[in-house]
Specification:
This protein has about 220 residues and is mainly α. It folds into two domains: about 1-110, Cyclin A, domain 1, CATH 1.10.472; about 130-218, Orthogonal Bundle (Hypothetical protein af1432). The chain has helices spanning about 5-20, 30-45, 50-60, 75-90, 95-105, 115-130, 130-145, 170-180, 190-210. Helix 3 (about 50-60) packs parallel to helix 6.
Length: about 220
């Protein structure tokens, strides 16, 4: 007797709970948030849950650190591991190609063109987790793990012409990547949510600026 999608999700969740490492930016809670967002976006966009949900649960199955030279290969490695796991568990193979594409294309650094509605949903769900209140928490968590300085005191927002460098200053990552990521969201529901989350981040930076005596110009 074939499993229902809800039953398969329990299998995926158990696997992630067993596999998730000690990276707090890509822990079990990250997978839960991405799956929750992907489910909501898929409903709004009419995407197939039998592709979206396995891809969302397994999208970061191989976590390559952000400072690792293999970082751009992470989504392909995750896709390989995901398909191997799904085949071993007996998941229907008819959806493997679409699941693989959705996992491979979600990565910002891999630069793979999205070719399906399902892949767009998974990509948006993952990128939204880097924005808003959660995104703020994650960026400073990663910055701390990589021993990066919090911000450049003389020109924290780069508004004075300083060259931004998020390999040195964590706050620079807002401008080097995160705000740009918001501009790449593909689904209508994702873009709407992205606008709300960007506003949260800009409000935070305005407060940050007031506290350090430097105006954030938005």
């Amino acid at each position: 007797m074939q499993k229902s999608l809800a039953e398969w999700e329990k299998v995926f969740e158990a696997h992630i709970q067993a596999q998730a490492g000690d990276d707090p930016a890509h822990d079990y809670a990250h997978f839960l948030r991405v799956v929750t967002t992907a489910r909501r976006l898929a409903t709004s966009e009419g995407a197939r849950l039998e592709v979206v949900l396995p891809a969302a649960w397994l999208h970061d199955l191989v976590n390559v650190p952000k400072d690792d030279p293999r970082r751009s290969q992470a989504s392909r490695l995750s896709a390989d591991a995901a398909i191997e796991f799904l085949r071993r568990e007996g998941f229907p193979e008819k959806d493997f190609a679409e699941i693989r594409h959705a996992i491979e294309a979600h990565s910002y650094s891999a630069k793979i063109e999205v070719k399906s509605k399902e892949a767009a949903v998974v990509q948006d769900a993952d990128r939204l987790d880097g924005l808003g209140a959660i995104g703020i928490a994650r960026v400073f968590t990663v910055g701390g793990l990589l021993n990066r300085t919090l911000y450049e005191p003389g020109d924290p927002f780069g508004s004075g012409g300083r060259r931004l460098d998020d390999l040195v200053f964590t706050l620079d990552h807002f401008f080097v990547k995160l705000f740009k990521t918001a501009e790449t969201l593909l689904t209508a529901a994702g873009r709407e949510e992205g606008k709300r989350r960007v506003e949260t981040m800009k409000n935070y930076l305005a407060s940050f600026g007031r506290e350090v005596g430097k105006e954030f110009l938005g």
